[in-house]
Amino acid sequence: MDSEPTNTGTPVAREANRAPGKLPKGKAAAAKVGGTAGVSAYPESVERLISGLAALPGIGRRSAERLAFHILKSDAAMAKALAGAICDVKSQVRHCSICYNLADTDPCPICAGAVSGPNGAARDRGLVMVVEQPRDLIALEQTGMFKGVYHVLMGRISPLDGIGPGDLTVADLFVRAEEPARNAGGEAVREVVLALNPTLEGDGTALYLAHELQKRGVQVTRLARGLPAGSQLEFASKAVLADAIDGRRPV
Amino acid sequence: MPRAHDDAICIRQWEWSETSQTVSLFTREHGLVRALAKGSRRPKAPFSGGLEVLTFGQAGLVIRPNTELAILGEWDLRETFPGLRASLEQHYAGLYMAELVQHVLTHHDPHPALFSALLESLRSVGEPSSVRASLLWFQWAALSETGYRPDVSVPGDQAASPDGTLGFCPALGVVQPVEQARRAGVHVWPVRSETLGLLSRLNGELAEVGGLAAPTIIDRAARLLAAYLRWVIGREPRTLQLVFGPDLPV
């Protein structure tokens, strides 16, 4: 009498019981099928997918195998949508020619005024916030608190690593400050808010930008630093506490 | 492996992963140590909120004899030198000192006196009026500790040229009569006797340097030592021109 394949018994028995063409499930199965060293037991296309996923930051070989198996088990539409999204990102996303944010239009929706500020207010394009990376912009934008526009430096000045202002988009920021026609909406830059990471290099970059922008008659401010709201003193790190003491202000 | 606790100043830092860093530490008792700080960027890790360049703390290190990368298990932050973030001049001066340490020392070669000099200089740089004096004093300490301190005594038979300049030979690290050096084809930099006089009195405390000479003479002496250090290490530190400009003698 024929019996249905079962998922019980020893791993060897489970492997033997698996229906032809079916892939094993779970971490242990992925490791088993993939092997540990030498020639891969995966079909060539699966191996390519695993290698591609494993090249991503924060994804190791085992995680890549798990993701690959998830894709294999998913329906074709989901896999095609994922592949299409990856292709679109590479073909359509570019840097905004004004602020260097990542966008699929140029200028980006923020510079174009298509994305409103807090409470639906129009963007104040004379107020420019400078950040190091596009992901910093996204974090700030998600707060919904900033009503101005942005400028992404694409890094920070790091003399010890040989990274100077010429390696960043600093010159374009100065052009925006000097020529209103080159700023978003053709408005003159009135104030620049420096929202750089509070590291020594971030602070060095802020000092350099403040020095140069003040020569161009632009008001320069920077984000406050110290204790985050809702935190407790006893759990704050020494660096944060030192910043908070240094940046104390009258009440 | 036993964990060694040592005072340290972080002089370089690289991102290793989303949560870990590799760092170059200048420690008091172990010299320059490159270490992996696993999980140092996690909020609850024992690293006082992460390691940053030019901060002073106590490091808990596991140094294995035949391994290039030590393990940094903990970092107790003691001092952040806020003056280094006060102006570009102070900022670049601090970076230059950190870079100099990397150039003049080899790994695992302890120099407690130079460590103390760096610590004191970083504190002093926080005062805008002491930047040049700190740079001069620290460079002198670096040259002295590594055995390259120049002989700035003026030979009795040496005559200064009519404008008061003498000749400093970077290849030999000595003062030479300008005419004699020219005749022998030895490369010398013109140097004023007052600059040499200041250098010959530099063996005291950093706090005394400002009182030894006028700011312009202190600046001139700091620039001379910067040019000499560039000669000694055989390359130009990346931060050199940010601190001293492009006009150092070559």
Description:
The complex is a heterodimer of chains A (251) and B (250). Chain A is of the alpha/beta class and 251 residues long. In chain A, strand 5 (191-194), helix 9 (200-215) and strand 6 form a beta-alpha-beta unit. Mean pLDDT of chain A is 85; it is low at 1-36. In chain A, the strands form 2 sheets. Chain A has a 4-stranded parallel sheet. Chain A contains 10 helices and 6 strands; from the N terminus they run H-H-H-H-H-E-E-H-E-H-E-H-E-H-E-H. Chain B is built from 8 helices and 8 strands, in the order βββββαααββαβαααα. In chain B, helix 1 runs antiparallel to helix 2 (112-125) and helix 1 packs parallel to helix 3. A 5-stranded mixed beta barrel of chain B has the order 1-2-3-5-4. In chain B, strands 7-6-8 form a 3-stranded antiparallel sheet.
Q: Please state how the strands of the largest beta sheet of chain B are arranged side by side.
A: 1-2-3-5-4
Q: Care to count the β-strands of chain A?
A: 6
Major pleated sheet of chain B:
5 strands, mixed, barrel
Beta-strand percent range of chain A: 5-15%
Strand composition percent of chain B? 15-25%
Helicity of chain A, as a percent range: 40-55%
Shape of chain B: elongated
Note the total helix count of chain A.
10
Morphology call of chain A: globular
The mean pLDDT of chain B is: 90
| Largest sheet composition of chain A | 4 strands, parallel
Distance between the termini of chain B: 48 Å
Q: Compute the gyration radius of chain B: what is it?
A: 20 Å
Count, helices of chain B: 8
